[in-house]
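pasting for the record
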Amino acid sequence: MRLCRFLSIRLQWGGTDTTVPLDNLPAGAYTVRAFAVASGRWLRTELSEPLVVPGGAVGVPAAHVPAPSWAEAVIPADSVPSGGAGPSSASRVNLASGEYENTPPADLSVRNPKGPDVAFVRRYSSFLAKRGYASPGLSLGWVHQYDIRVEGVLGSWGALSLVYPNGGRETLTPELVGGQPTGRLVVPAGAPYCAVGTADSVVGRWREIVVVHRDYSKWVFTPHSVGTGNLQTYRLVRIIDRAGNFISLSWFSDGRLDQIARADGRVLLKCRYSGSQLESVEAYDASGAVYGRVRLEYTNGLLSAVSQITASATAPTRWAYRYRSVGGVPLIEAVATQDPSAAAGADQLVWHQILYSSQGFVAQLVDANGHARTYQYGGSSTTVKVYNPNTGQVDFRWTQRIGTKNVNAGVQDASQNSSTVLYQNDYLPTSRTNRNGQTVQLIYLI
């Protein structure tokens, strides 16, 4: 895909490059042909792929509200229906806020016959990049799934925050009797878990905080570090399944993940660092030998490549990333994977593009096949258009309605047929009405 950010195209005629301006074109995808006459001959030059004119991010989207991880399914997002593992398969756009997210499958998975399985899963968020956050060891905007923590201020038995990797937060409120904690932590209405804590002799500090999920699995947090303003951070140190089997997580003092081991102490997964940057992730077998690893590469301090799983010193690239500065923040502008049409054994990448407005909202996604998806934001709704790469015409169009907390409130298609979703407790749908007016009621046992 050739992108034209400056609304011009460069042609070559007689060995001389000529830049031809293409002004006043609306946002969309175009097939460009150039003809010239010289000595009675026609010169016909045609792009093998369409020209994409930036645009589409009209209006102002809703402010980004990161949902707790358990509720992300009700946040409307648009992605390319790739049906495989192409470069756009991990990209999605938050249709409420216009933020870009990259959510590839696990880089490495480890089977654990004596407890919860282990995996290393990364995700990227332009929202986190703009806030200057990354999981310790990764670069701006990137986090891993174990970066779940609890935060609270020492000095009083005040509210705690359960913080998810995507930046979502939920409040855990200590139940007090006579000013002293009973151990019960009151969770938000509708949350699919309960929580308890063991108070320490230091006011405001908890020796242990346990989150119990509806399937009876548990997250266990213990004190890790104290930051500015006496902010106590609790790190996830144990994940327990419903049968009582567990894995243990070890952390460095700066919050970098060190390793994950099963109950008998055998290491399942280990992180290796070069300085403070994560350099590789290794999987171990029952004998303690490394049987697979992925390698991470950085360019100018930003994650630029992740390898395929290998047991050797080198491996082909599985994912590659390029960035550009928007408002002084480096945001992912292109993602690549191996080209399936390349010759056997060739290390050849194929790219897909992400275009942003000057405010850092996604204006377009362009997949590796040249389909351009544009986004027109309106705060309470976002209109999506999908352009055909061959004709430049709109193949699909729909409008996503946005509800409170940026949830999916329903969709209106190009024929003005609408669906509706209603909620209770912010993230729990109570009814869904389809485009034919048929309604399904949902009841929760909480």
